[in-house]
Amino acid sequence: MYDIIIVGAGTAGLTAAIYGVRAGRRVLVLEEKVYGGQIMSASEVENYPGIRNISGYEFAEGLYRQAADLGAELRFEKVCRIQEGADFKTVYTAKSKYECRTVILATGARNRKLGVEREEELTGSGVSYCATCDGAFYRGRDVAVVGGGNTALEDALFLSAYCRTVYLIHRRKQFRGEEKLLAAARAKKNIVWIIESRVTALKGEARLEAVVTEENGTGKRRELPAEALFIAIGQEPDNRAFSGLVTLDEHGYIAASEDTLTSSEGIFAAGDCRTKTVRQLTTAAADGAAAALAACSFLSGTEV
User: Of 3, 100, 134, 296, which is the active-site residue?
Assistant: First the structure.
């Protein structure tokens, strides 16, 4: 019988494990693929307080080692479903089943991919899904952003302060983003609008050097000199296995606020899998700490 089972070994999940075992609880972390989550693909991290510069791999490795050294258990098994009982919960994986008193869901969210050839190969070498994480590396250079919502517009505005040219690529004529953001982006002289077009190819050997676009209808191709492509076409959580257990919003995110409490007693949600506005490394770590402390309070019968 575990005190806490954590589903997901990203920044939120491993932080929760650290706080849980430090509170004297028996903790098991279940991860489908590899520990670290999305940060593993980041070549450099420069926006985490107190750490000047570190690779995503080193950051994730440090989190894992810290949690494991403290006594957290980690097993690579996909969680299929969770069943609630009167006094405990049963977590079923593809291999086994485990019993616990509380659960922290920290399954994260996946960046929606463009589906262009070499996208995965160049991720971390010019292709990025986080402008605030990687934008400063391209100061004074030409970059591109693809997307039509608030995130794409915010990314373009953010990058326009650092980069020489920001190509904003959108497959439609109309943007889904807020008018205020659109107006601010249109006022920037170094944002170049490439509308009614889609990205069809990525060029470069070891690193991205150019982005090829194709205009809708005409098929006209254009090669944009860009050392980075920031993909901002949304994220998608994978919480289907928990849809009958906790309340999800219309986009599939677990309904939980800063206290990490879900609609089910003794089940908490941390990190990118829950409803939130800001999804950054720091907020994932904060969620992990909050969820672990909330679980410990639940176990001891005290208020969070």
Answer: 134
